[in-house]
UniProtKB/TrEMBL annotation:
Chaperone involved in the correct folding and assembly of outer membrane proteins. Recognizes specific patterns of aromatic residues and the orientation of their side chains, which are found more frequently in integral outer membrane proteins. May act in both early periplasmic and late outer membrane-associated steps of protein maturation. Its EC number is 5.2.1.8. InterPro entries: OMP_Chaperone_SurA, PPIase_dom_sf, PPIase_PpiC, PPIase_PpiC_CS, PPIase_SurA, SurA_N, Trigger_fact/SurA_dom_sf. Pfam families: Rotamase (PF00639), Rotamase_3 (PF13616), SurA_N (PF09312). It is found in: Periplasm. This is Chaperone SurA. The lineage of its organism: Bacteria, Pseudomonadati, Pseudomonadota, Gammaproteobacteria, Moraxellales. It is an enzyme of class 5 (isomerase). It comes from Acinetobacter terrestris. PANTHER family: CHAPERONE SURA. Gene3D superfamilies: 3.10.50.40, Porin chaperone SurA, peptide-binding domain.
Length: 434
């Protein structure tokens, strides 16, 4: 699925920095409240900054700047939507971690020519004290809104297995897979009897691939038949209107006649082939025992328990019995600790590293992850063709991206309509100015 790009947020933030020398970074004592949104307020200084950003966007795109009143209302609408989202952020207690925040701030720092957060902070605070802190707060909000959108909008997107199958059969799906087709392309043009000759050409193509002979036979009496053997080409390289006709064909079939401005076209599918690249991945058949610290099990006791189990395994006791008896992973404990066949990238990095480095039939020493203490055993390995699974995953991602923007717009309208909004300045209230 689509991960919302933060470049728009970063551009807005960088823009705010560029303009910060001419704006108040913090609310001034004379600041006015221009709107209430649920439990928060929008100040005049917020609106002034938003107006400057919107104005700058129009200027940078070399578009005419709208009238001032329209600009103010647009800026206020953006602030209201943003504040409504931040109210949701607070409700669900969404917070980016420090590492994620520092990486995001560093991207903005790099755009401004700073190579460290410290240098960036000094640069900004030289403009006005507190500017760097204001920026971090802004990006914190942006990241939280981004995560909120992901959680809320993605939960609204429903893609069925049938949707995936249907997409993979379309020209767009075939092109995305890198599939190629070998096509004969014939164009019939002229002034007289073009449709009749085109039908004859189509009939001839059903029985023959000799396009040179077909051209010669049917070019006469003001009708010209021109053919081309395109060889294997990616579906994405074929004009979309023609690719849509070719994609559903079986090998040996021809399209219906395609009337266009320069004549009538007909195509025949000679062969098709999928992308050469296969997704062959190593899989590990593994089982594990997990001991988690808890309110009644201290971290020290958890380590003692896993060490005791490890010693019992080395003494020859049965892994499955010990897993069923002691493991805190209920899903696998019921099956003797079995995780089945595991694909790369599924487990947390510490677990995957141990899994890859443990020989078949061997048991790892105890190791720690965010979930607790583990012992694992690899019972088998294999190379598995996951091409179909990867294709389906890619299809779901593309379909999700197509739906995301529409669902996002719908969700934003909903939270805007459900939010309590009171605009203090009558001149900015659209309802009162209709």
């Amino acid at each position: 699925m689509k991960t919302i790009q933060l470049k728009h947020f970063f551009k807005a933030t960088a823009l705010a920095l560029a303009l910060s020398s001419s704006m108040a970074t913090f609310a001034q004592p004379t600041d006015e409240v221009v709107a209430l949104v649920d439990n928060s307020v929008i100040l005049k200084s917020d609106l002034d900054q938003s107006i400057a950003e919107v104005n700058h966007q129009f200027e940078s795109q070399k578009k005419p700047v709208p009238p001032e009143q329209f600009l103010k209302q647009q800026a206020l609408d953006q602030l209201i939507i943003r504040q409504a989202q931040l109210e949701q952020v607070k409700r669900y207690n969404i917070k980016p971690n420090e590492k994620e925040l520092n990486e995001a701030v560093m991207k903005v720092a790099a755009q401004s020519g700073s190579n460290s957060l410290e240098a960036f902070q000094q640069k900004l605070d030289a403009i006005a004290p507190g500017t760097y802190e204001s920026l971090r707060n802004r990006i914190t909000e942006d990241l939280a809104i981004n995560r909120l959108r992901q959680q809320m909008v993605m939960s609204r997107i429903k893609i069925s297995d049938q949707d995936v199958d249907n997409f993979l059969k379309t020209p767009q799906g075939q092109a995305a897979l890198g599939n190629q087709v070998h096509v004969l392309h014939v164009r019939i043009s002229g002034n007289n009897n073009v449709a009749k000759v085109a039908e004859q050409v189509k009939a001839a193509l059903k029985d023959s691939n000799d396009i040179a002979a077909i051209d010669k036979k049917f070019t006469a009496n003001g009708v010209k038949v021109e053919s081309a053997d395109t060889g294997f080409r990616n579906l994405s390289d074929i004009p979309s209107e023609l690719a849509a006709r070719v994609s559903p064909l079986q090998v040996g079939q021809t399209t219906d006649l395609i009337p266009v401005q320069d004549g009538i076209h007909v195509l025949k599918l000679i062969d098709r082939k999928g992308a050469d690249q296969k997704a062959i991945v190593p899989q590990y058949k593994a089982r594990h025992i997990l001991i988690q610290p808890s309110e009644v099990v201290s971290p020290e006791n958890a380590k003692q328990q896993i060490d005791s189990i490890y010693n019992r395994l080395k003494a020859g006791e049965d892994f499955a019995v010990l897993a069923a008896t002691f493991s805190n992973d209920p899903g696998s404990a019921r099956d003797g600790g079995s995780l089945g066949w595991v694909n790369p990238g599924v487990m947390v990095p510490e677990f995957e590293t141990q899994m890859k480095n443990t020989p078949v039939g061997q048991t790892s020493a105890p190791f720690q992850t965010q979930f607790g203490w583990h012992i694992l055993q690899v019972t088998d390995t294999r190379q598995q063709d996951m091409t179909r699974e990867y294709q389906e995953r890619m299809a779901r991602q593309i379909l999700g991206e197509r739906q995301f923007d529409a669902e996002l717009d719908s969700w934003l309208r909903e939270i805007r309509s459900n939010a309590f909004v009171e605009i203090k300045d009558p001149s900015l209230d659209r309802k009162k100015n209709k």
